[in-house]
């Protein structure tokens, strides 16, 4: 693409000329002198986007536009040196720096008004067929990863959205349809490489920098450093089955409650159906009717006869409607099952905004309790776009010790999360209040914890909700690898401890060991004369 590259070079030359002549509008927005700013832009291999550029709004936009940010600069890094250049510039200018891979932070934490370090172009994939591992660049989306793995008949448990980047997803744990068979996404990490705030690179695994290895797998992104690549173990997986079963809640609420009880008792608690992965939705589907529906979406790794036997307890429930049956590779089944959920207006999809929040259910609920939840939702949601999703745990997920990584949610049955959506900003508060009231209603069923990959800015006591008694462990790792708190945002790890839970926190188990670095690089602040330019 020589023409595209030439245009990019021309753009950079024009920008540099504007800076030297103090013409570019961003110059006065960043408190630095022209020499330092020119040096920053000149050193970059990747693309830098500034306010006023034609592609600025596209470059700054997050997947969820509910929390807009207006960065002073967005850098699409092409290599390690670009990351180091961004870190040095952020140190020099005191700009807040946020890292993003797929722009999918539900609470808008992958954006800021300082410098956005975008790693989406670090999307390499390298498969080791002998070791059965794959090494993936931090910005690789699942669409690209699944396509490459499935071409060899391989699989790595991942999420439902194809444009999510692996880095942010892994650092929050990572649930998907096949997690009951193969584990949470972060459980499959064998090692990773990360750049710390001072520019030095580290590798972490069970033997080297093992405390960081523990923390990053579930401790969430933008906490300890910038992930650049991860090595995962992978699995052989042929075509799988997919199915959708419905019950109309409006006309048959008793059958929908019965179905939820069967899912809990037969598929989660018995723990002998780990090849069955499932999510259960409470939502509308305008392609069928105007009723609120309970929708059971499931995948199965096995033959059709075994699949039918496994499903029989649900098929026996009155008024069960089979809407879809699929047999294909994982990504195609995943796409088919989740299509049109939630039921959003496609003609306005880029304008849709959302608030999400989750809560975990750990105890067995009675059929009447499930009915109570259904009745609460049936009374009325802010609009037809509202969706409840219940992700089924058990299987391989629950076989792992809660202390194995920072993803501690191992003794639960369901992660129930709610999404509310709106288009017109005047409807925002109504939706925000509804989801807060719903979460308050769910308190009596919840274990008090929430899935950190579904963050909410309204999440009360988020330290305990996401990390429970292991939060001091994260504080220890944060203070060791990012002692100056360079990486920070509204829900970043700090030494603050909630006194309400102080007696429940567990002592930090890590041995005192020095950080093992991959190189001796360290960024040092550069002094420039801040001459006033006129």
Structural account:
Helix content is 29%, strand content 20%. The protein is an alpha+beta fold. The chain has helices at residues 2-20, 34-43, 56-60, 80-93, 142-150, 166-171, 179-182, 210-216, 253-269, 304-315, 330-338, 367-379, 428-442, 462-467, 471-481, and strands at residues 47-49, 73-76, 97-100, 115-118, 125-128, 133-137, 154-155, 189-195, 201-204, 226-233, 235-236, 240-248, 276-284, 292-300, 321-328, 353-361, 387-392, 414-422. The chain is built from 15 helices and 18 strands. The strands form 4 sheets. Strands 15-12-14-13-17-18-16 form a 7-stranded antiparallel beta sheet, with helices on both faces.
* SS-derived structural category: alpha+beta
Write down the Rg: 24 Å
Unreliably modeled segments: 525-534
The chain-level mean pLDDT equals 92
Order of strands across the widest beta sheet? 15-12-14-13-17-18-16
- N- and C-termini, Cα separation: 39 Å
Count of runs of 4 or more consecutive helical residues: 15
Describe the structure concisely for a colleague:
The protein is an alpha+beta fold and 534 residues long.
List keywords for this structure.
single chain; about 525 residues; alpha+beta; seven-stranded antiparallel beta sheet; five-stranded antiparallel beta sheet; 15 helices; about 30% helix; about 20% strand; globular; disordered C terminus
């Amino acid at each position: 693409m020589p023409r595209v590259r030439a245009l990019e070079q021309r753009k950079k030359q024009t920008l540099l000329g504007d800076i030297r002549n103090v013409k570019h509008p961003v110059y006065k927005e960043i408190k630095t002198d022209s020499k330092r700013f020119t040096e920053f832009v000149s050193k970059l291999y990747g693309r830098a986007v500034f306010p006023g550029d034609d592609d600025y709004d596209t470059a700054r936009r997050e997947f969820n536009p509910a929390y807009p940010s207006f960065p002073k600069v967005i850098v699409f890094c092409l290599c390690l040196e670009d990351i180091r250049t961004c870190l040095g510039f952020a140190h020099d200018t005191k700009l807040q720096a946020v890292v993003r891979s797929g722009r999918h932070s539900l609470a808008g934490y992958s954006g800021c008004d300082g410098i956005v370090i975008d790693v989406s172009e670090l999307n390499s994939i390298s498969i080791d067929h002998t070791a059965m591992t794959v090494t993936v660049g931090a910005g690789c989306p699942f669409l690209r990863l699944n396509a490459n793995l499935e071409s060899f008949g391989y699989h790595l448990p991942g999420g439902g959205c194809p444009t999510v980047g692996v880095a942010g997803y892994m650092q929050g744990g990572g649930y998907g349809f096949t997690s009951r068979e193969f584990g949470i996404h972060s459980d499959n990490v064998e090692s990773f490489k990360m750049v710390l705030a001072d520019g030095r690179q580290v590798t972490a695994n069970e033997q080297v920098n093992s405390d960081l290895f523990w923390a990053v797998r579930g401790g969430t992104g933008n906490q300890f450093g910038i992930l650049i690549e991860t090595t995962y173990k992978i699995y052989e997986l042929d075509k799988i089955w997919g199915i959708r079963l419905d019950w109309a809640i409006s006309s048959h609420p008793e059958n929908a409650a019965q179905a939820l009880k069967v899912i809990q008792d037969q598929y989660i608690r018995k723990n002998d159906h780990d090849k069955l992965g499932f999510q259960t939705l409470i939502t509308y589907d305008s392609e069928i009717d105007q009723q609120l529906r309970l929708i059971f979406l499931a995948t199965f790794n096995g033959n059709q006869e075994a699949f039918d036997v496994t499903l029989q307890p649900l098929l026996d429930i009155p008024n069960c409607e089979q809407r879809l049956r699929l047999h294909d590779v994982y990504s195609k089944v995943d796409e088919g099952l989740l299509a049109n959920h939630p039921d959003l207006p496609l003609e306005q999809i880029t304008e849709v905004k959302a608030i999400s929040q989750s809560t975990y259910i750990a105890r067995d609920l009675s059929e009447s309790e499930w009915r109570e939840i259904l009745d609460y939702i049936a009374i009325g949601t802010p609009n037809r776009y509202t969706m409840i999703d219940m992700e089924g745990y058990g299987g391989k997920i629950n076989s792992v010790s809660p202390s194995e990584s920072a993803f501690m949610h191992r003794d639960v049955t369901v992660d129930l999360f709610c999404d509310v959506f709106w288009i017109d900003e005047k409807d925002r508060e109504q939706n925000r209040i509804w989801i807060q009231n719903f979460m308050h209603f769910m308190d009596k069923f919840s274990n008090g914890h929430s899935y950190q990959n579904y963050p909410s800015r309204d999440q009360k006591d988020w330290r305990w909700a996401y990390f429970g008694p292991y939060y001091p462990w994260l504080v220890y790792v944060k203070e060791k690898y990012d002692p100056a708190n360079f990486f920070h945002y509204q829900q970043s790890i700090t030494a603050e401890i909630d006194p309400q839970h102080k007696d429940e926190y567990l002592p930090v188990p890590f041995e005192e060991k020095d950080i093992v670095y991959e190189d001796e690089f360290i960024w040092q602040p550069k002094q420039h004369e801040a001459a006033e330019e006129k």
